[in-house]
Sequence to fold (51 residues):
Amino acid sequence: MIVLGVILLIIGFVANIAILWTIGIILLVIGAILWLLGAAGHAVGGRRHYW
Fold:
């Protein structure tokens, strides 16, 4: 999810499409939150690790 967010950020920036930029930021933030929760040992979506 983090990688997809970064890709959408880059495409949105290069193509100057605001909606891709916004979706990329949202996916990047959600991916980072899930990654941190999984790294801290919390079960995310029924899994012990999220990556």
The CA atoms of residues 36 and 50 lie 9 Å apart.
